[in-house]
Design goal:
This protein is of the alpha/beta class. The protein is 32% helix and 18% strand. α1 crosses α8 and α4 runs antiparallel to α9.
């Protein structure tokens, strides 16, 4: 999850988005998370007086709002929140913010411009946001998919691995070659979880399944995503999943008369024949909650929120008519079981790709394990880049 050429321009007063529609930078090697147990919550930060000016809210986007994937999902949620709160808030966005020193400059400028609720929508923004949050104690900072928190910075994420598992059920039933593929972005835990969950879902209905992975080391690079998808198809994979942000994988499957899934947003219109379903993220519930808390004074730092199907943050939608009715029924039943907590995706006995037991029978992975997950499960070919050296 090759660096792309990009440029990210900071906005002037008024925060009109000036970022160019260039390709994004992918992350370098990430600090390994030791995640997910949240620190004790800070005391609520004071609400603004009723007569005060509107709350100024800013969002840093990893890619273009029109990527129809990750950033598009965030942008749709932002638009919904703008409509919900009306003149109580003023929202600005900056697109194509690299996960680099440029991000720190963007966050610092956002705070200097008077934004007191600032969202960073990608993992690689964590360290830059921590630096800026330390200098602007009166502002509230929100980091997507991160694992570090402070008194005025908190993190939030979605359990996309849940819908990756559901996609895997469909893939396992639809594959004719017993080989499925994933185009991976950056090898960080959130992506590895999705690869593993996709494989586990497929294996639950087809024990012959094997998963091939090609990494592009970028979140958004349509040419490389296309190349990776074609490589997987050439290697025998006939159902593809992606953890990248464009529609390139799905469109490559369409050209090759194979199957694939939409990711983060509904991508069904881009490949009507290849599209089997879309595993989506709905950020609106969390953004609405965060804005409400900033307005009424109940916002607290030092917390981590991880929502999934049960909270309406994740779903699998637009399931193709090509998917048999009994498979759709199984997906619906499994989705309901995930939602009510009676089914867990990562449960023992579970072994990694080397045959090592990682969960004993009856055990299920807790959030700490999931937050730092860095191994392939049995069924995934190869090794995690930078992971197990055995």
């Amino acid at each position: 999850m090759t660096l792309n050429t990009k440029r990210s321009l900071l906005t002037q007063a008024g925060w009109t988005v000036l970022a160019a529609a260039a390709l994004l930078a992918g992350c370098g090697k990430k600090e390994e998370p030791a995640p997910a147990a949240a620190a004790p919550a800070s005391a609520p930060m004071a609400a603004a007086p009723a007569s005060a000016a509107p709350l100024k809210v800013a969002f840093a986007y990893l890619g273009p709002a029109g990527d129809h994937g990750w950033t598009y999902a965030h942008d749709q949620a932002v638009k919904a929140v703008q409509k919900e709160y009306g003149d109580k808030i003023v929202v600005s966005t900056v697109e194509n913010v690299p996960e680099s020193a440029d991000a720190e400059r963007v966050f610092r400028d956002m705070a200097t411009q008077g934004n007191t609720l600032i969202f960073a929508t990608s993992f690689g923004y964590m360290e830059p946001m921590l630096k800026v949050a330390a200098d602007f104690k009166d502002a509230k900072f929100e980091h997507a998919t991160g694992f570090k928190q402070t008194d005025n910075l908190r993190s939030y994420d979605s359990r996309s691995y849940q819908t990756a598992y559901l996609a895997g059920i469909i893939a396992g039933k639809m594959s004719k070659t017993n080989t499925i593929g994933v185009v991976g972005s950056i090898p960080v835990p959130e992506v590895i979880r999705n690869i593993d969950a996709y494989t586990l879902g497929a294996l639950s209905v087809n024990p012959k399944i094997k998963t091939k992975v090609v990494w592009v080391n970028s979140w958004f690079d349509p040419p490389k995503e296309t190349e990776a998808a074609q490589s997987l198809i050439n290697g025998g994979a006939d159902v593809l999943l992606q953890n990248t942000d464009s529609t390139a994988v799905l469109q490559t499957a369409e050209k090759n008369k194979k199957f694939a899934f939409g990711w983060d947003s509904d991508m069904s219109k881009f490949a009507p024949t290849a599209h089997l379903a879309s595993a989506i993220i709905n950020w609106q519930p969390y953004y609405s909650k965060a804005v409400k808390e900033a307005l009424d004074g109940s916002w607290k730092g030092n917390t981590a929120t991880w929502w999934g199907i049960n909270e309406g943050a994740n779903d699998i939608i637009a399931i193709s008519d090509q998917v048999p009715a009994d498979v759709k029924e199984l997906v619906a039943k499994t989705k309901a079981a995930i939602s009510d907590g009676s089914f867990k995706v990562f449960v023992g006995p579970l072994v990694d790709s080397t045959g090592k037991e990682v969960l004993k029978a009856g055990e299920s992975a807790d959030d700490k394990m999931l937050g730092g997950l860095n191994f392939y499960v049995k069924g995934v070919e190869g090794k995690v880049p930078g992971g197990d050296k055995k």
